[in-house]
Amino acid sequence: MEIQMADNIDGPEITLYASGDLSSYQFHGITMDTSGYAKLADDADDPVEAPIGALQNKPSAAGQPAVVRISGVAKVMGGATVAPGIAVTIDGDGHFIAATANDWVWGVTLETMVSGSVTKILLGAGQGGAYTAPS
C-alpha cells in the first residue's frame, strides 16, 4: 500500500546559472561544473560529481537561471521502476534509478517510480555519501 500524499511539493531551492540548454532536463539530476554553473548530472559514481538537486524549470541557454530543488519533497524523472522507500541515484542521462554500491545517494522514493515518468522523492535523504547495500 502506498502512502497518499498531498500534491503540493515543497522544499528549499537555489538558483544557479545554466551551463547550457537544459530545457529538456526538467526534473533531472543536477550538479555543478567547475565554474559553479548548473549542469546535467550524468555519473552516479564519480567522486567529484556530487549531487546538488533536481532541476525544477527549463532554462534554454547558458547563463539563464536554473532553479534547483536541493532537499525536501521533489519531482524527479524516473529512469527505472523503483519501489517506495528505496535509495536512489542518477543514471548517465540524469534520470533517477535505484542506488547500487559506490553510487551517490540522492534521496529516497516516496512512491513507485516508473521509467520515463515524473515521481516524488525525498531529496537529500542519505545524500552525500556512497551507497552500501544492506547485508
Task: Provide a concise account of the structure shown.
It is built from no helices and ten strands. The chain is mainly beta. The radius of gyration is 14 Å and the shape is globular.
The neighbouring-strand order within the major sheet is: 1-5-4-2-3
How many beta-strand elements?
Answer: 10
First and last CA, distance: 25 Å
Number of helices: 0
Q: Which range does the strand content fall in? A: 25-35%
Mean pLDDT metric: 86
Total number of distinct structural domains = 2
- Cα radius of gyration in angstroms: 14 Å
Globally, the shape reads: globular
Q: Helix/strand/pairing class, anyone?
A: mainly beta
Any low-confidence stretches, pLDDT <50, length ≥5? none
Layout of secondary structure:
Blueprint (H helix, E strand, L loop, with lengths): L12 E5 L11 E4 L5 E3 L12 E3 L9 E5 L2 E6 L9 E4 L5 E3 L8 E3 L8 E6 L12
Antiparallel strand pairs: 1-5, 2-3, 2-4, 4-5, 6-10, 7-8, 7-9, 9-10
Protein name: Head decoration protein
Organism: viral metagenome
Outline the structure in words.
It is a single chain. By secondary structure, the chain is mostly beta strands. It has no helices and ten strands. The chain folds into two domains: 13-69, no CATH class; 72-123, no CATH class. Strands 1-5-4-2-3 form a five-stranded antiparallel β-sheet, with no helix packed on it. The protein has a five-stranded antiparallel β-sheet with strand order 6-10-9-7-8, with no helix packed on it. A hairpin with a 5-residue loop joins strand 7 and strand 8 (96-98). The model has no long low-confidence stretch (mean pLDDT 86). It comes from viral metagenome. This is Head decoration protein.
